[in-house]
Amino acid sequence: MHKLNNDYLEDAVEDSMPFAAQGEVNTSLPDLDGTKKDLLGVTILTTDQQKFTGGNWEQTVPMQSTSKIISLMLALHDFGKDRVFQAVGMEPMGDFFNSISQLESYDTSKPFNPMINAGAIAVSALIKGHNNNNRFERYLHFLQRVTDNQELHLNEQVYEAEKANGARNRALAYFMESVGTLITDVEEALDLYFRINSVMMNCDDFAKVGLFLARGGRAPDNDEKLIPANHLRTVNAIMMTSGMYNSSGRHAVEVGFPCKSGVSGSIIGVVPGLMGIGIVGPAIDEKGNSTAGGALLRKLSQDLELNLFGDGHIYGRGISGGV
Amino acid sequence: MHKLNNDYLEDAVEDSMPFAAQGEVNTSLPDLDGTKKDLLGVTILTTDQQKFTGGNWEQTVPMQSTSKIISLMLALHDFGKDRVFQAVGMEPMGDFFNSISQLESYDTSKPFNPMINAGAIAVSALIKGHNNNNRFERYLHFLQRVTDNQELHLNEQVYEAEKANGARNRALAYFMESVGTLITDVEEALDLYFRINSVMMNCDDFAKVGLFLARGGRAPDNDEKLIPANHLRTVNAIMMTSGMYNSSGRHAVEVGFPCKSGVSGSIIGVVPGLMGIGIVGPAIDEKGNSTAGGALLRKLSQDLELNLFGDGHIYGRGISGGV
Amino acid sequence: MHKLNNDYLEDAVEDSMPFAAQGEVNTSLPDLDGTKKDLLGVTILTTDQQKFTGGNWEQTVPMQSTSKIISLMLALHDFGKDRVFQAVGMEPMGDFFNSISQLESYDTSKPFNPMINAGAIAVSALIKGHNNNNRFERYLHFLQRVTDNQELHLNEQVYEAEKANGARNRALAYFMESVGTLITDVEEALDLYFRINSVMMNCDDFAKVGLFLARGGRAPDNDEKLIPANHLRTVNAIMMTSGMYNSSGRHAVEVGFPCKSGVSGSIIGVVPGLMGIGIVGPAIDEKGNSTAGGALLRKLSQDLELNLFGDGHIYGRGISGGV
Amino acid sequence: MHKLNNDYLEDAVEDSMPFAAQGEVNTSLPDLDGTKKDLLGVTILTTDQQKFTGGNWEQTVPMQSTSKIISLMLALHDFGKDRVFQAVGMEPMGDFFNSISQLESYDTSKPFNPMINAGAIAVSALIKGHNNNNRFERYLHFLQRVTDNQELHLNEQVYEAEKANGARNRALAYFMESVGTLITDVEEALDLYFRINSVMMNCDDFAKVGLFLARGGRAPDNDEKLIPANHLRTVNAIMMTSGMYNSSGRHAVEVGFPCKSGVSGSIIGVVPGLMGIGIVGPAIDEKGNSTAGGALLRKLSQDLELNLFGDGHIYGRGISGGV
């Protein structure tokens, strides 16, 4: 049994950091100050209001694909489950996150799920607003409430890089237009998608999103219920089956609680009822997941017995003193 | 909040039975006595040794694909995780359970996971034994211990039907031989696979398997630990991401705990630490899952708050009096 | 044996016209004056300078995919075979002309051949010119020389329709950019592609292109050799294996000489050494080929013994008096 | 212009032999006496009854896939075009000859064409006979008439090797059974397929088959018409679009007349009205075609102007003195 405290987390980070050597930093993102390969940071926020940190937890990186769960929550809020899942499926895919073949092969040509690029473009296109500025403002406002951080904002350098490297996402979006999946203007949908990927966050911010999903969708400042239970379960379950790209199956076995990764090396983790986890480790593997971050999650899951599919008991038993 | 008792289960079965009309009984199986389209039965066994039943819980059906979790446990026991996952992946697939294209497209030509036919053939081929009789005996003995039911045995009619309708499985197995995935004799591997699919079980038996996975892999008769914690988590996690064929993503959203279905309309459900669930409802949808059984699982999950990805609390809160 | 003359052609058109009922006019093209479903026209131009016509041979339609052979000739002229076939393959595909899966699956992500949309976009991007106006001028000038028709020009309505319905082509082009296949500016490449598809031609014009390919690439006015023998064989051979979309195999069996079709219902036919054929029949099948035009080609091939794969003799024996 | 004689052919073989170094001999075939990597032989038989040979033309090798055109002719004879093309398509495929994905993806699950393994299994299953011995006897008798060689017979060693290495073909056949494409007994169909691949032939024999297809399907001994014109065109056309596996498009460009290759390094060539060509060159490329044989075909096509898609004239002009 392990005591969950800052010392434990520092040790866990130190143990996991060597796995950074197995990955590479995503070169399509701008060389932001301090984004080095062997960085690793973590913040854990518990539902009983404790906070623990380890390593380079203050390092900011772009949200990248971790934004997909924010836009999914907002689209569910704006349009409800039926409409959202007309535009996108909820099945794991078994192929790389930017696959276009799978888009063509799937029955109705809707993307497999909201965690892959095509699905996230289709979902973010559902966010209500009278123009893209307004839609992004609503996204940012929601994100600021969830994280209780009014400072979050779009990073122009990242946004420009997203646009400059957007060919594959353009292909996905125009394909969806051609089969009638994407009914809004393609360039506008892409522009919004590029913006929401370009907000900088640190481990605290990522952990706040995890905590929001772990404690019933309540705002951190005033406990207001921002998202109903039904939508929350939907988001957590889809993170479980599809959140770690085409390593989601392995992640379920080895970590065993819902997570969402981004190619910036960020990971949001959700242990329902117990804690939110935010990780930054910029070196990623060929599937797009932080290598050191993955090692850290495996360690946390094992030490603290956070695996939901565990050994004949309800998870979380491994934390001495409890959470 | 709901009281979990027989009356509640009878009502739940009655509510769910109409969904049988949306499915069809699998005609490739022999017309076994009493396997009618509108049957639905359920047994729930809790970790604190209570038993509840509803509907046609005594109806037996062939194990079919529910056998896949038994053979996975046995192969993990016999060879360990590393060897088993050399032969098969652990990623959900996004295609039908008998897809052969996915077999050819996947990097190393190993099947995506042990819950699809190709994967289960590869896994069952790992079960130790000096011949097929011996391998099947070991399988049956393990199944009898897990279910505490010495009466379980192979049904010859089902076995003959499996062999007669085995063309697709033969295609999968010979393909795996041709790419070096399946190293044992193909016809022997298929014969064993057909046998293990042909054991008849009722809801009690299926629930016993679920309970075994929910309470730490301990034998029901003497609490002996038959399977280590690590393997148990592996099996439960793979059931979560791939257990309901290419409806596993939807199942995670709507039900939210590990299940495995068979085309006989059987379902094994696992709520870790709380209960095992056995369901029989022979009418299946085009993906191979019991339609009425699925409705019943959704109802149980919602009423008893069994969804692992739930609303800011640890699951199981919906049961009055507790389990 | 048949006498090839205008009466014969009128009869052949009349026999073939009923097949128009099996097709539909492509509705993504503007409703140009007189493009009716049951139109059918043909012009045959022989290498010994005879001309025969039948039906609505004066009807103009947009070039659409028949432009693909003009841009292939021009790209071969501008860059040579090695460079062109770095950008595109020369294998028939076995899938629909706008398939994007095949693009992703093919080894090097280059399009299968220059007769499918992706391949034609990649090929036309190779046409030399200091800007798109200049490139299109060169295309048009070459087309005017080949057809000996200075009146040919871009139809603005068709061009606008191409742009408005260009989502799938945009998806293909951006995908190629994302894998490094398309190295020019995507929007510029698409704009040129849309322009070259938008020239209006009648059966005489289409037959002129066929004759050019049948008589050694010599200009009709002064017999100047515009294209070397090697390139000419390349174009004719690729038309044979891939010119009729994913009906090219059937077309080889039933017609047996190189043709290229467009979704406007146009077809260019080449009988090497003997004749060029131009056909307009706007009703197309689900693969994109003129239904009545296909029937007419089958009849011409059989009556005049034009099938290159024929019965123990060299083709063209069926024409009384010879050509 | 070239004189077609034995000296010319010897020189052509010598020029082409170095290309053998780019290939490998198929190791799944038994190490038959003298089948060495750098062998190359050719026989040309003209429609005006001349015979020319070069290199190791007496070397025998198993027919392998060159048998596919014999079984196609026999099936067309026994059942007619409509029935045969219910069982198999006639489109080139764009994938490797033993692809199983394409089998699953194609609309009706029938194989793309009779030149790929799945298609040839389905076609040979149509050969009439009251048992497999009788079917193979009819095949062999037809082959002996076509080649005018009563000595041809099954090689037991090759047949055993075919059976021992038959896993992929078994997979294809059982897949076809599972989707209803193959209606005969699978093991019987495979056994017949293995037998017809196992006849040993030399360049003379292969050239005889080519000549048969080049001169109207007439028996070499008494000019009896064994196959009607319609079927002959069908076979030649399918060889043109699909005969060289997924190099058929390149072959059409570079050689330009119908050929069929086998993984034993054999090639049958057909120049309609002019000649049949038989080639043996055991070193094959990764697509299954003889590397030196391909070089020799390119040289013959260019020197003798045999390309059907040629430069403004009817093919065959390059032979001095004529054929």
Q: What's the arrangement of secondary structure elements?
A:
Four copies of one chain form a homotetramer.
Chain A: H1 6-16, E1 24-25, E2 41-46, E3 51-55, E4 61-62, H2 67-87, H3 101-105, H4 117-124, H5 132-147, H6 156-164, H7 167-178, H8 186-196, E5 200-201, H9 203-214, H10 229-242, H11 248-254, E6 259-261, E7 266-271, E8 275-280, E9 283-284, H12 291-303
Antiparallel strand pairs in A: 1-9, 2-3, 2-8, 4-5, 6-7, 7-8
Helix pairs in contact in A: 1-12, 2-4, 2-10, 4-7, 4-8, 5-8, 7-8, 10-11
Largest interface: A-B, 49 and 49 residues
Number of domains of chain A: 2
**Main β-sheet description of chain A:** 5 strands, antiparallel
Mean pLDDT of chain A: 92
β-strand number of chain A: 9
The low-pLDDT segments of chain A are none
The CATH superfamily of the largest domain in chain A appears as DD-peptidase/beta-lactamase superfamily
- What is the CATH first-level class name of the largest domain in chain A? Alpha Beta
* Cα-atom radius of gyration of chain A: 18 Å
3D shape of chain A: globular
Number of helices of chain A: 12
The SS-based structural class of chain A is alpha+beta
